[in-house]
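Bug: token stream looks shifted between consecutive jobs. Job 1:
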Amino acid sequence: MWNIQKADFAKPAGVAGLGSKKAGKLGKLGPVVEKIVLPVETDTEKLVNYVCGSNILKQGQDVQLKPDSEYPDWLWSLRLTKPPPLEEMDQNSIQYWRRLRKLNNQRQSRLMKLKKY
């Protein structure tokens, strides 16, 4: 009387199917690649005296750090924090006007996002 068909071609969805992908198996976007773990230098003597990772060649060694007196004076006066506020900058400098233009562009962009067309 009733003709019921069963769709047995689909896999049952369940918890067992989660996380079962293995490396090299194809996923939706291609083969699944395992995360590469990069070696980290733990030798404190080498970390203090050398620029670790500066040698990109197979042979040789990393660049050795020199004493502070061998580096130029301007290197130690570089600003490493946030740039100064706009009010503290000199209005006759090009950096002031570039920063002012950037801030105005950001403000205008935020205002245009609120505008409904």
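Job 2, same session, no restart:
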Amino acid sequence: MEGKTQDASSTAPKHLTPAQKQLLKRQQELEYWKRHSKQIRSRNLITGLTIGAFVVGLFSYTILSVRQERIMDEIDDEAKIFVMKGPRTGANS
């Protein structure tokens, strides 16, 4: 067993101090993040772009709805004016 090199996590002696256990755990976490950082970064990018697209779409929809509402208000105002003036017939024009 002296000639073999083994991973620190696979040969954890039972008589470690709490500080050594914490150091070993931190080293394992660091290795995990090193191995998975590219995958996590790509997931974060996809999530960010999805949320951004949703926000832009919602904003665009809201602006479009408000514009249409203003146009409908203008059409309604024109219709009210037309109704108040009355119909144009040959007798009253």
